[in-house]
Structures are given as structure tokens and as C-alpha cells.
Amino acid sequence: MTDLALCDALANARHRLEAALAAADRTPDDATLLAVSKTQPAAMIREAYRLGQRDFGENYLQEALAKQTELAELSAIVWHFIGPLQSNKTRDVAEHFDWLHSLDREKVARRLDAQRPAGMAPLNVCLQVNVSDEASKSGLSLAELPALAEAVLAMPHLRLRGLMAIPAPATDPVAQRAPFARLHEALTDLRERFPEARLDTLSMGMSGDLEAAVTEGATLVRLGTAIFGARDTSA
Ligand SMILES: *Cc1c(COP(=O)(O)O)cnc(C)c1O
To answer: Which of 42, 84, 135, 190 to pair with 74, CA 20 to 30 A apart?
Structure first.
């Protein structure tokens, strides 16, 4: 993708988010645009940063760490790890990221809490919930959610921010909204259960379903192809 195409696509993505927020009677700063830069070269991230983008999401650790090294001078960048995380890879996330969206096991949480360097702010985490009831998808069941939330809230080097979901793809807007509504409801339940916790984040909505997610209360939308174009899947 050329720099000019990226500039257009990023402007379009911002417009889409603004329009969706306005249509849902929400204020323009009610949701943050997370640019999902997996498989994209460091130069694309640098260009998006130059255009004002600050939050970037990565799925593959080795690829992300290499790009972070290349982009070390971008001091205000906020790195989100959004892919599945194996327990033997937690140290890299603890040491190099600001956010983790895909936490779904206490063992992983304990390791991250122990490995987060003392000089860094607590790692912001979202618990990933399986809202589509598909056995193959990762994420916690709604029934498992309160116990993991309680455990994470007691960990000093993690800061529980909210919930994340990747619903099964659907094209019909009504069908798209149902799992997002379930995630919002789950967050509301957690807030009632843990009123001291500041649970302010619903990480939901991608290029194909941003509008449905914003209608149902998304505060962090994760856009990849809508910003950077189609991914080269051979990479
Ligand atoms: C790749 C990815 C995205 C972005 O998907 P697009 O459809 O390209 O917008 C968002 N969230 C997660 C967890 C992803 O892995």
C-alpha cells in the first residue's frame, strides 16, 4: 500500500468510527481506533504514526518484537498484543506491550503479573470471552468469567480494563449485534460484582462489523484491512 492510500484509508476508518458513534448517540471520543498492523512492515506503522495513529495491535510475537526494535524512536506509540498467547511466551508480552486483549487463563495471568518489570506501569488486560458458543474459538465462557476477573483484580502488576471478543463472522447487521450485546451485558455484570474495579473497555469490532460493535458499546475497535488493505497471507 502506498503512503497516499494509507492516508485515505486511515481517514476513511476515522470517519466510519465517528459516523458509527454519532449514529449511536455517543460522543466522538467514546471509542479508540486500534490499528491492527500484523503482517504489515514497520514502514507502514511509522507512516500511520506520522498521520496521528497511536494505538497498534499485533498478533505474532516474533514479528511484533522485530518491528518494535525498528520503531523504538516512536515514543508515544501504544502496543497492544491481541493474538493467542502461550504460557511460555508471556515474558515478551510482559516486557514489551502496554495492553493484552486475549487473556483467558489464570496461569498466563500469574506469569504476566510476576514478569511485568517493576519500572513499568501495570499491564492493561482484557479478558477474551467466547460469545459465539463455538467450541473451536478461544476465550472464556461467560460462566468462567467472574473467577478469572477476581483473580486478575488481585494481581498488582496487571490492570483489568474489560472484555474482548472475536465473534463468529456474520454479514447480517442484526446477527452481528447479538454477540456484542452479550459481551456488553457481561461487562455490566462484572461492574456490578466488582464496583471498585474501573472496567472501562469493550474491545470489539473489526473491519467487517465495526458499526454493529459501536452500536453495542465498543470502546476500542480493532481495524486491520480497513486501514492497511488486504494482508499478504503468505507472509
Ligand atoms: C486480525 C485481527 C483484527 C483485524 O481484523 P480486520 O478484519 O483485518 O479488521 C482484529 N482483531 C484481532 C484479534 C485480529 O486477529
So the answer is: 84
Atom number, ligand 1, closest to the C-alpha of residue 228: 8
Q: What is the CATH number of the domain that holds 120?
A: 3.20.20.10
How many A from CA of 196 to the centre of ligand 1? 31
CB burial readout 194-204, b (16+ within 10 A) else e = eeebebebbbb
pLDDT, one tens digit per residue, over 115-170 is 999 999 999 999 999 998 666 568 999 999 999 999 999 999 999 999 999 999 99
| Domains identified in the chain, total number | 1
Instruction: Evaluate whether residue 234 is within a structural domain.
Output: no
How far apart CA 161 and CA 152 sit, in angstroms, is: 10
State which residues form the domain around 157: 3-228
Distance 128 CA to ligand 1 centre (A): 14
pLDDT in tens, 83-111: 999 999 999 999 999 999 999 999 999 99
pTM for the whole thing?
Answer: 0.96
